Amino acid sequence: MKKYLDHLEELIIASLIGAATILIFVSVAHRYLAGFPIPVLQDWLLSLNLSWAQELCIFMFIWMCKFGAAYGVRTGIHVGVDVLVNRLPEGWRRKCVLLGLFGGALFTILIGTLGARFVWENGLHYALFTALGIGTGDVPEGPTTPDMELPTWIVYSAVPLGSYLMCFRFLQVMRTFARTNQLPHHDHTHVEGIEAEESPEESVKGAVVLEPQAQRGAL
User: Which of 22, 139, 160, 194 is most enclosed, with most CB atoms within 10 A?
Assistant: First the structure.
């Protein structure tokens, strides 16, 4: 369970960006191929309605951004100005870092709670009561999106879900920092799954060192 939780953001982001890429490709190909006067193919393509593709891709990117922010907290890739903090004595630096992480957790849990309240009042209340067979009374059904006619509360759910996950990552980082005094650091030069190659300068140095050894061995 912990293995999947530690890589939850990657799974969501990779799935969404893969689906969005395929959908955009199909939509663009459909748009251009429908312009060719091919007897049967053109009629079939024109009968397909893909006007909703752009809207769905926008929603996918919204969800990617929210969960990408949580991924940034976990891996330490968010931009931060820490010049002053790093110049402080170790004790004060530790307190400032913990205060900053606590502020991030507090902010995201507030955004998540406000977002959850908005989603609840924007149609989730109605959808949940309807699914459970409870009378809705004067509860509004909530608006829908223009093209897909999808309940907007589904789209806006990215705000509370992403914010709560981001808060959880802030608390994780704060707990790790309190124990080890280490913050997550992302090496922008490292690519996952690719080992670091030896630089040309290091290769030349190695050759210079090995050459005298080889000559002594020959003698």
Answer: 160
Please name which of 122, 101, 108 lies closest in space to residue 161, comparing C-alpha atoms.
108
CB 49 within 8 A of CB 145: no
Cα 103 to Cα 93: distance, rounded to the nearest angstrom: 15
Distance of CA 195 to the CA centre of its chain: 25
Cα(194)–Cα(189) distance, rounded to whole angstroms?
A: 11
Report which residue type is found at 218. Answer: A
Q: What is the pTM of this model?
A: 0.79
Assess contact for 105 and 174: CB atoms under 8 A. Answer: yes
Do 152 and 123 form a contact (C-beta atoms < 8 A)?
yes
pLDDT in tens, the chain (219 residues): 667 777 888 999 999 999 999 999 999 999 999 888 888 888 998 898 898 999 999 999 999 999 999 999 988 888 778 888 888 899 999 999 999 999 999 999 999 999 999 999 999 999 998 899 888 888 888 899 999 999 999 999 999 999 999 999 999 999 999 999 888 876 656 556 666 555 555 554 544 444 555 455 554
The answer to whether residue 199 is domain-embedded is no
- How many domains is the chain partitioned into structurally? 1
